[in-house]
Amino acid sequence: MKQRNHTPEQIVGVLRQARVRLARGQGIDQICRALGITGATYHRWSKSYGSMPLRYVKRLKHLEKENNRLKRVVARLTLEKAILQEAIRAGKPYY
Description:
By secondary structure, the protein is mainly alpha-helical. It has helices at about 10-25, 30-35, 40-50, 55-90.
């Protein structure tokens, strides 16, 4: 399955279009097909970004990206710490 990275503007735009189509009486499956997304994607976006203004969606996406970066940094530092502790226990120089 192909994964796409949608911009916050695209997500908000798709959700706005979906709301308009829902108000006209179209079904979710029909709307998702017309907008080129899956039903699961629509429901996930709706739950996460449903009534947020665009600036908040952008900020949330930025914070999620930064959080992932920081998690990788912590994982790398934890691994380095474990390696250094093991070297100290073994009595070997670590430089």
